[in-house]
């Protein structure tokens, strides 16, 4: 990527470059002829080349860049640039289905470029030729389109500062304002609550048996995805578990005392897979289909001994609340087959939600009779 490329400068490591170059002010309001997207939740080993290849199926990729640092949550991120797009929202929706490695990436329209300079999008309006009987409607059509484009290119963007500070700002058409609301959760639970993210789906499902062996355990709550909340008798027991890494490292990828902060949103989506041709009825094929939607948690058990080849089931981990109903094309030996992945909307929770009994409302009261 050369310095001559419009708007994007070569990123130098700290300490390199002349003082004059370092003192140059960052431009504001620079016009870019292309559309850039911010991409987060990248695998640690992801390169700029791999990032480019992952997005090439959606159109020409002008440039792709992976940052040399992580954001505050520990996630790797980067930027992907496309030529001017007429429907940014639709492209953003499609890009949010991309999976790199075992991770489903998160994509938003970038408000700032990788060098921190503000992006101002300018898009050429398509020529409008009104047919007979539409005189007088032309200007209204242009006004409406200008407003639509403005909404598309200025909302839901993430600034470079937002990325580094991991202030995940999300906007929706409807909002509620909780100006006078005072949360009670932290006051009731105190610092005796631990947040954990299990390593896999099997660990999540078997967690109910494991927690009963932990000293000071009071209750277990499911937060969605692979996240759980474990309540203890007091902060001392909570800290003790955190310090005993060998006790929980086989179960959790992360475990920490909750201080009232939010956690990344994720959920488990149960999918039905339709339309797989009989000659391609194989778990390898079906798992690849599921992997297009998110990280596979429960893989296909398809077998040549199956009697029902009309559908199969999978579970994937996703980071948005959008209902999944997606067609995917399989190409094999010069032929194309369209399959559908449709989400099963029936409620699901791990067995421990019903098996471990009610969770106490506060940390006061008698100890759990199942622990010492």
Automatic annotation (TrEMBL):
| Residue ranges the record marks as coiled coil | none
Disordered: region residues? 1-31
Record keyword RNA-binding present: yes
Q: Which CDD domains match?
A: RRM_SF
- The signal peptide, as residue positions, is none
Q: Where is the RRM domain?
A: 35-112
Q: Name one GO cellular component term.
A: spliceosomal complex
Alphabetically, the GO molecular function entries are:
RNA binding
Q: Does the keyword RNA-binding apply?
A: yes
GO BP of this protein? mRNA processing; RNA splicing
Keyword annotations from UniProtKB, A to Z = mRNA processing, mRNA splicing, RNA-binding, Spliceosome
Please state what the protein is called: RRM domain-containing protein
Q: What is the lineage of its organism?
A: Eukaryota, Viridiplantae, Streptophyta, Embryophyta, Tracheophyta
